[in-house]
Structures are given as structure tokens and as C-alpha cells.
Amino acid sequence: MAQYTRVSGVVGLITLQNPPVNALSAVVRQGIVDKVETALSDPKVKSVVICGQNGNFCGGADIKEFGTKMFGPPLIPMIHSIEAANKPVVAAIEGSALGGGLELALGCHYRIAHSKARLGLPEVTLGLLPAAGGSQRLPRLIGVPAALNLITTGRHVTAAEALQLGIVDQVTDHNTVDAAVKFALSVAGRSLDARRISTYPCPRPSDLDALFEEVMQKVRQSARGAIAPVACVQAVRAAATLPYTQGMEREKELMATLFTSGQARAMQYIFFAQRAVGRWRMPSGASWDTSKPRPVTKAAVIGLGTMGRGIAVALARAGLSVVAVETQEKQLLEAKQAMSSMLERGAKRRGGVPALGLISYSQSIQAAADVDLVIEAVFEDMALKIEVFKQLTAVCKPGTLLCTNTSGLDVDQLASETPNPELVVGMHFFAPAHVMNLLEVVYGPRSSPQAVATAMQLGKKMGKASVAVGNCSGFVGNRMLKLYLEQASFLLEEGATPELVDRALEEFGFPMGVFRMSDLSGLDVGWRVRKAAGLAEPGEASGPSARIRKGYRYSPIGDLVCEQGRFGQKTGRGWYQYEKPGSRVARSDPWMHSFLEQYRARHGLVARSIDHQEVLERCLYSLINEGFRILEDGIAAGPEDIDVIYVFGYGWPRHRGGPMFYASMVGLAKVLERLEHYHQAHPDVPNLQPCSLLRRLVASGSPPVHMWREVRKKLHSQL
Ligand SMILES: CCCCCCCC/C=C\C/C=C/C(=O)SCCNC(=O)CCNC(=O)[C@H](O)C(C)(C)COP(=O)(O)OP(=O)(O)OC[C@H]1O[C@@H](n2cnc3c(N)ncnc32)[C@H](O)[C@@H]1OP(=O)(O)O
């Protein structure tokens, strides 16, 4: 709702009230319409201020209303009536003015913002466009290039940038509502002719066509297959080329297509899923609302390889004091230099001061004596990690949380080597750790809820989507990835090329296909793991057993590629070739094609034609099937956890909502049928066998994603 009061005798103050972000629900819209009318019809009122309750202007349209039958006054005429008012209306912006919230402010005649406020039109991140006049007013106010940037990226700007761009008229460090009321008093009675943005001509850059062409290419490239960024560009083009009313018609038309699209549903699902994963629950019943995190002000990072450096930088950026420990002197010096420049570059990009002073460096683990939490990031080797944990136990003050950064080692085994296993959790960061926004917080059976709560809170503080998951080989992300990689290799054996597989996945929306991605991460990493697991055998065996391990199909192709010293980008050769070691542009490699032909010939495999659909079904459905197993095992509490992990950590296209949501969009019955089909065709691949939770869900009529937990519970209670 909206509250109305008169202040200073002549200013009508309308306060939006809809905690926590004052979203524009039907009730709020009705409140605004009513209170604006009250203010405009009161002869004593000379000007109006609109603000939001509890230091937050407005988080935009109420996303929960989308997909439901919408009622209440629509936004467009509501904003139009504010702009058309004959008394000045001032927006007092504190906290956030986002989406419909900023569009409301753009309908006001003036905008005053607090210095800490954030403004933006993030609709594109929800699969939409700013369709309450935002796509038409913003370019008229700040010009086409700046509006295109804001609307197609959805980025939030600070009040200082908003002032510089011309979005707001004034920034204050003091009470924003007081400043706005004072301002409203000063402009009372002034002509508003020059303050209605919809009447402004849109500034047209001379190279309009070239500009739109360039931006269109950029958005098509950065979010492959996503329709909202394209519609955003089209809407801004309408602002630049059509009169306002026709532009509004175009905005409405484009929004109508987006609003009911599967992509918008997927992106809005991810918005809520990202928040839902913060409400974690362990199988023991312990959960976010019953477990209090410990305060962490000082942390240590042990081991300053690539991961350790990124983690230490992320911690310092979050404002923690960090003790960075590396026993090798040369490595320590290198790390210090690299981390300083990471911090400096980051500060330059974001604006602000690099947190150099927050990090102290040491060669001795003793330096971790007084920290609240340690993140061990040494080499991925259990014996080494056990040794480091032993030393930490002796050095650290009682109660220090011991976290291990591992991408798949057994967290419980490590915990069992310490006298206080309840203080141990896994923190699986993704490389580069100061850039990637995902963290898997891995709890073992003995991790205390408080340790989990602390790691989750720390992840959030570092700005990462943090997901609590159970302990198993590969946790959630890598456990599923293994199946995806496996199918990709099988497809090569059967006749595909790396290019064909990658093209199919990139057209689906991944920023990189599986082979280009593997070249980037380094092929030797997986090879080492396969060797340790006794899967990769030296030299090339032939005969039927060469492609069988433990009775099941295995593809040694990746091992053979590594044996050639082809580790990907770092060696200049991998699944593709590169201009030189370290180069990033992948080029087709004739060597690889003849290698694959010879390999197939040696193993008596006849290449067949493989289409994109088969690539997608085999790679994605096997990964999804493992996702269902993970749910069945209780390693992830719900499908949202898996989807957030895949969207934030593995490049799964956001507009497809994550693998589990995607499965629900495809139809669970279809996923099941295709898995059965492929399992029949490849009985030696057990992972293609549909798991029982998937079968149970289909038998229960394929309920929507949010009901899967219930079905799983029932399945468990019957086992
Ligand atoms: C046929 C055509 C039909 C046309 C119909 C047209 C209608 C639309 C017309 C115009 C277009 C306008 C569209 C929009 O405005 S879309 C919304 C744009 N706004 C956003 O994307 C902002 C989303 N919110 C945030 O980014 C953040 O919440 C924040 C920065 C505002 C605050 O962050 P923080 O303090 O970290 O809090 P949380 O994110 O945790 O949020 C708290 C709580 O609030 C819920 N919530 C946040 N924003 C909204 C919202 N806009 N609507 C509904 N609910 C919202 C959030 O989900 C959290 O709750 P929880 O999930 O229960 O935890």
C-alpha cells in the first residue's frame, strides 16, 4: 500500500509500503494512484514527494505477480498520470530504484538520490524489458548509447554514476526525504514543461545504424539464444526512431512476446532459486533459521596457487583481514605480486581503493594462530591436506573453523583426521575464485550446523551464490559434469568431432562447448584424477577391453590426447589448436580429425552421422539424470540448489533456468523416454539408465519443480 501525509504544510508525501523492497504489487499500485489523486486534488498541496518505506525506494514490479492473473491498476497509465501532473513530483530515492521502481522515478519531474542508492533497469535479467516506459524515457534522458548499456546489461549504477549520466538531479549524504521535501518546496509553482521526459526528443547519434548493429551483435554473442536482450535493443531503437507514443506501442508489443515466454519463466525461477538456496537445510534437520553463524573478521588462506590467490583476494574484497600463507619463498613472492595486481585491477574497474592492506603474507603456518577461520587451498592431494590439517589443529586457537577448498576430495575423511570434525567443512570455489560467483559449501555427516552457517554467510559476504551440499565424490557440480564429459567422449568415438559437439552446446546457449571449455581449464587435471582412480592406463591398448573399465564402457580418448602432451590452451594444443601456448582462439585441428579416424579404425568403430539433437540429449539428459540421483541421495536439498550451481558455476544458460528446470520445461516424460532409448542403445553405459526419482516423478504426473521435494520425501519413506 501507500501512505499519505502532508509535510511542511504544502508538500504531499507518498510513502510506498510493501516490505522488504516495496515492490509494486497491485495493492501498492492502487495506493499510488489513490494518493497521487489525493495530493493533486488538495489545493493546499503545491508539490509532491514519492519515497519508499524503510530506506528503500522500490525494487520494481512484483515479480511474484508475473505468471498469475494480474489485477489492479497497470503501471503505464499510473506513471503517465504522475508525469502529466500539474504539480511537481519529486522521487526521493534511497536503497534501490530498480526496474518499475526506476520507471516510476523517471515519470516524476525530479529525482533526488541518497549517495548509497543503486539504480537500474534489470528487467533483462528476468527475461523482460523495461516496459513501463523505461525503454522510451531513459534514452530520451541520457542518450541512446548509455541507455542501451544500462538496459541490455541490467547493471545497477551508483548514485554518483546516475548523477553523472543525468538520471538523477541531486545526490545527498543526508536524509533523502528531507532533501526531497526541501527541493519540492523550492520548485513548487515552477513550469513543468521541460520536466516531462516523454516529451523530450531522443538524442540521435549520427551513426545510429552502426551503433545498433554493433550492440545487437554484442548482445547476441554474449547471451546466445536469449531473446530479452535483443528485444531491449529493438525497444531502444524504437525510442530513437519513433515518436514517444509509437515507441510505447513497440515497447508493449515486444513485452507481450517476452512476458509469456519460457525464457522469462526460467530467469524468474533462477531469481527466486538464488534466494531460496540461502534457506539451506541439512538432512539432520538443522537449517539456516536455527543455526547462528560465528563472527569471522580474520581468515587465513593456506597455499597460494591459483585457487588460494583468488580466495584470499575475494576475502579481502569482502573486508576481512587475511593471512596468506605459502611455505615456498619464490611462490610467496610471485603470489604477493599477482594478488596485489588483482586487487588493483579490481579496484580500478569497480572504483574504490584496493584492499592491499588487509592481506598479510607469511611463510609460516604459525601466522594462522589467531584467525577465526582457515581456508586450506593446497594441492588436491588427500595426504597433503591431512598433513596441513594436522598442523592447523596444533596451531590455531580452539574453535577455529577449518575449511578445505577441494573440488572433489572426501571432506568427511579429512574431517575424521582432526580432533574436532564438527569444525570442518568443504568450500569448493570455482576458478578464478575472485571472479566466479559460485561456492559449494560441503558438509560432512559430522560438520556442525554452525560451521555450515558460517561458511554460507562468508560466501554471501564475498558476493557468491552459496549452496550447501552433501559430501560425495565431485559434490554436485562435478559429479554431474562427469557424465556430461563422458557422453561427449563417447560421441567422438561414434563419429562426432569436437567442433560438432561444441557447436550444438553453444547454440543451446553455453558460452563454450565442452571441448573448448576443457581446453581452457586444462586437460591434464582430469587426466591426473583418472590416473589416480586407476582408469587411465599408460599406452594405447587395443582390443575390446581397451574401452572397458570395471565392466562398463570407458573412453580413453582424453587420456591418449594427454599422452601427446596436448593439455589445452596452456600447451597450444588440445582438442583444438592455438596460435601459441596460452592463446585463446581455438582453431580446428586436422591432427585431431585424423587422430579420431585412426582411433576409430583401431577399435573397429564405424563413424555414423550424429546430429545436434543427439548431442544435446546425450550430454544434457545424462547430466540431468545424475541431478535426479543427487536429489534422490539427498546430496542437494532441492532442484533449485542444482540449478543455481549450474547457472552460476558451469555456464548453463540462465534463460534455460538450470538443468532441472530445463528438464521440467522439456517434459519429464520426454527426458525419461529419451534416456530409456539411449540406455537401450548403449546398455554398457549404466549412467544412461533413468533413475528412480525421475521415474517416480513421471509416474506422479510430472509435477512442477517446486513440488519435487515432496515426491522425493515420499519415495524415501517407502524405501
Ligand atoms: C502482456 C504484457 C503484460 C505486461 C505486464 C507488464 C508488467 C510489467 C511492466 C513493467 C516492467 C517492469 C518490470 C519490473 O520491474 S521487473 C522487476 C525489476 N526489479 C528487479 O529485478 C529487482 C529485483 N530485486 C533485487 O535485485 C534485490 O531484491 C534488491 C537489490 C532490490 C534487494 O536486495 P537484497 O536486499 O539482497 O534482498 P533480496 O534480494 O534477498 O530480496 C529480499 C526479498 O524480496 C524479494 N524481492 C526482491 N525484489 C522483488 C520484486 N521485484 N518482486 C517481488 N519480490 C522481490 C526477494 O525475492 C526476497 O524474498 P525471498 O525470495 O522470499 O527471499
UniProtKB/TrEMBL annotation:
Pathway: Lipid metabolism; fatty acid beta-oxidation. Residues 474-578, 615-702 form the 3-hydroxyacyl-CoA dehydrogenase C-terminal domain. It catalyses: (3S)-hydroxydecanoyl-CoA = (2E)-decenoyl-CoA + H2O; (3E)-hexenoyl-CoA = (2E)-hexenoyl-CoA; (3E,5Z)-tetradecadienoyl-CoA = (2E,5Z)-tetradecadienoyl-CoA; (2S,3S)-3-hydroxy-2-methylbutanoyl-CoA = (2E)-2-methylbut-2-enoyl-CoA + H2O. The keyword DNA-binding does not apply. GO terms for cellular component: peroxisome. One of its GO terms (molecular function) is NAD+ binding. Keywords: Fatty acid metabolism, Isomerase, Lipid metabolism, Lyase, Multifunctional enzyme, NAD, Oxidoreductase, Peroxisome. Residues 298-471 form the 3-hydroxyacyl-CoA dehydrogenase NAD binding domain. Gene3D superfamilies: 1.10.1040.50, 2-enoyl-CoA Hydratase, Chain A, domain 1 (3.90.226.10), NAD(P)-binding Rossmann-like Domain (3.40.50.720). GO terms for biological process: fatty acid beta-oxidation. It is found in: Peroxisome. The keyword Membrane does not apply. Its EC number is 1.1.1.35, 4.2.1.17, 5.3.3.8. Belongs to the enoyl-CoA hydratase/isomerase family. In the C-terminal section; belongs to the 3-hydroxyacyl-CoA dehydrogenase family. Monomer. This is Peroxisomal bifunctional enzyme. It comes from Zoarces viviparus (Viviparous eelpout).
